[in-house]
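From the thread on structure requests for the teaching lab: each student submitted one protein with a one-line request. Submission from student K.M.:

"Model dTDP-4-dehydrorhamnose reductase from Streptomyces caledonius, C-alpha cells only."
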Amino acid sequence: MSTHPGNASARRWLVTGAAGMLGQDVLTALKDAGIEAVGLGRTDLDITDPAAVRAAVEDVAVVVNCAAWTDVDGAETAEEAATAVNGTAVRVLAEACAAAGARLLHISTDYVLPGDASEPYREDAATGPVNAYGRTKLVGEQAVAEVLPQDGYVVRSAWLYGEHGHNFVATMLKLAALRDSLDVVDDQHGQPTWSYALARHLVALGQAALDGKAPAGVYHGTAGGRTTWMGLAREAYRLSGLDPERIRPTTSDAYVRPAVRPAFSVLGHDRWAEAGLPPLADWHEQLAEALTAPGFTALADQARDGRAG
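Reply posted by the TA:
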C-alpha cells in the first residue's frame, strides 16, 4: 500500500461522477458510514483536465471514480471521444492518485469480457470486448493496473439499477402504466445489481484498502444468482403488485441496436474473500429491498393506478 507522506492524515473521500445514479448512492453510503466525502459531478470537475484532477485529489484518502461515458450505442460512432473519458482520463486520475498517495476505486463493466461463457467469469478471466464501449472501459482498467499496481481497485459491475437516474427497472415500472403487455429480451443472462448495494460494498472495500486488508486488482461488484432481462422485469412486477405475465419473452434479434450486447454477463465473486468481505447479496434480495425506496414505490403506485408519472 502507498505510504505517500502527503496522505498520512487524509480522511476525506472523493466521488467523481457524483451526479449519476451510482455516484449519488456512493455519497449516501459514505454519509451512512460517517465518512467525510466530497462529490464532484461533470460540471464540477473535468476529469480529462490533469491540473484540475490533481487539485481535486490532493489530501484525499480514497477516490471512487463513477465518472464515465455511459452511452453504449453512442460509443460505436464516437469511440475516440468515449476513450478520452473512459480510458485516457482514468490514467490521469490514477496518476493523480499515485502522486497524492490515494487509493483509487474505479468502476468498470462486464462489457470488457466477451460474453460467450457458460459459467461465471472469474476476476482473472481473459478480456475481449465485443463493442466500442467495452474497448474504452478496458483502456481504463489497464491504466489503473499499470499506474496503481498496489493502490488501484477495478470494480466491474453490470445491469445496474437504482432510485436515481434512468435504468431498466424504473423503465419497466413506468411502462406498466402505459401498456398492457411488454416484450422483453429473454436470451441475455446477467446479474441485476442495485446501485446502493454496490455503493455499500465500495465503501467497505475502500475501508479495507485503507486498513491494508484488501489486495489491489479486479473485483466483481454484481449481485449473486443470475436471470434474464425478462426474469428481472417479471420479478419487479411481482414484487410491485403487478401481474408478471404482462411481460412476454422475446429475443435480442427483435431489438437490433448499434452496439452488440454480451449474451452472458454472469460474473464470479471469489476475490471478495481475499479482502475479508462477503460478496453482494442475491439479486432477488437486492431487488426486494430496492423496490421499497420511495422513487420505486411511487412508480409502482402509478402503474397500479394506470397513470403515467
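TA comment: The CA atoms of residues 64 and 146 lie 18 Å apart. The mean pLDDT is 95.
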